[in-house]
Amino acid sequence: MSGNNISAVLYGKNDLRLEKYPVPEPGPDGVLIRMAQVGICGSDVSYLTKGFIGDFVVKEPMVLGHEAAGVVAKCGKNVTTLKPGDRVAIEPGVPCRLCEFCKGGRYNLCPDVSFCATPPVHGNLCHYYTHAADFCYKLPDHVSLEEGAILEPLSVGVHACRRAGVTIGSSVLICGAGPIGLVNVLTAKAMGASKVCITDIAENRLQIAKQIGADYTVLIKSDEAEALAKHIKKEMGGMPDITIECSGAEPSIRLGILATKSGGVMVLVGLGPAEVKIPVVNAAVREVDIRGIFRYANCYPIALDMIATGKINVKPLITHRFKLEEAHQAFEIARTGAGGAVKVMISCD
Ligand code: NAD
Ligand code: 572
Ligand code: ZN
Fold first, then answer.
1. What is the distance between the alpha carbons of residues 93 and 112, in angstroms, rounded to a whole number?
2. What was the pLDDT predicted at 3?
3. Which residues face 53 on adjacent strands?
């Protein structure tokens, strides 16, 4: 099998190549996975179009992809929980397991995490890939491999809604209706939110949000945050208890703070410029707690359960499908959002 592992390799800005890599051998605690479905994330697109995100620079060739599912092809000698033929979702971040964050259960904060397609770690947009067996989740027969791949962004939604404290009866404002805003809509509704309002600057994305369960949509046409906050209050019949910001845009963060009810919570999911100007005194004196999130921890099992039990349906988020050999076209659609693209899925089998 060696040398037959076609992989989508990023050499640097706008230099994506399909190359044959060797088929890797799993370590004693790992599994070899025949890759099936890999979603394109905004971070894959950023590495392709800019060559970096923040301090993470593509210096060596790196395989893209971290939203993935596949079929176990071979197990390392210590693996007892999986067997060849099992269909699995792959949690892309494997932490050190030893530091205080790992031991405390907040393993997403591990400084030594190895996360797929974050330089210099290879991702899994390829035919064969090895991963730690305990970061692979067996899919029930009725859960598709595409749904398995979407567990990754869905886990971001689960983590954000948990950090926000979304519960039965919550009223939630979600800013930004990209894939991450949309998984937050699905999760917030599944966790019992009674009112979910979502904003975006693009009407087509708001339409999808409506279809998947958003109760109110607000098209953002100006940066007048005070007026927009009043409009949202009127639409929702009161200020939201919780705001989950999923655009990273400065005016949207500002709006999120002003729109949130006193004593409420604002979660920053979107990561835009490293420094932004926000009305921090307004948040302070109204006791609006501002919380961040970094990926997720312990969320894959919850995300899988939400799909497997039918509490949420992620299928409407998948708008485009390509084969690995068509990776360049797939990334072009993901980059431009042409044809109303939300989640672009690449099939590797
Ligand atoms: P995306 O670019 O597809 O979606 C962002 C959406 O925000 C777009 O639909 C855009 O039209 C909209 N938007 C832009 N300006 C706006 C404004 N002023 N008001 C309202 N909406 C506005 O990206 P995505 O894949 O959905 O990811 C969203 C953000 O989440 C990104 O910044 C990404 O880096 C971040 N993210 C963070 C984490 C984390 O761990 N914190 C994890 C995953 C993604
Ligand atoms: O699915 C995980 C994920 N995380 C994203 C973006 C997209 N997908 N994050 C935004 C970028 N950061 S980072 O800290 N970084 C590149 C490591 O700037 C991670 C979280
Ligand atoms: Zn991602």
1. 10
2. 78
3. 56
- Residue 121, ligand 2, Cβ within 6 A: no
Per the domain annotation, does 75 fall within a domain? yes
Q: In a 3-state reduction of DSSP, which class is residue 85?
A: coil
State the ligand closest to the CA atom of 269.
1
Which of 330, 305, 303 is CA-nearest to residue 319? 330
Prediction pTM value: 0.98
Structure tokens at 131: 């991963």
77 and 162, same domain (yes or no): no
Q: Are residues 78 and 166 in the same domain?
A: no
- Ligand closest to the CA atom of residue 64: 3
What is the pLDDT, as a whole number, of residue 2? Answer: 63
CATH at 235: 3.40.50.720
Interval between CA 257 and ligand 1 midpoint (Å): 17
Q: How would DSSP label each residue in 187-251?
A: HHHHTT-SEEEEEES-HHHHHHHHHTT-SEEEE-----HHHHHHHHHHHHTS--SEEEE-S--HH
Among 163, 131, 146, smallest CA distance to 295 is for 163
> Are 334 and 224 members of one domain?
no
pLDDT value, residue 317: 98
What pLDDT, on a 0 to 100 scale, did the predictor assign at position 1?
Answer: 54
Residue 185: enclosing H or E segment and its boundaries? helix 179-190
> Residues of the chain whose pLDDT is less than 70?
1-2
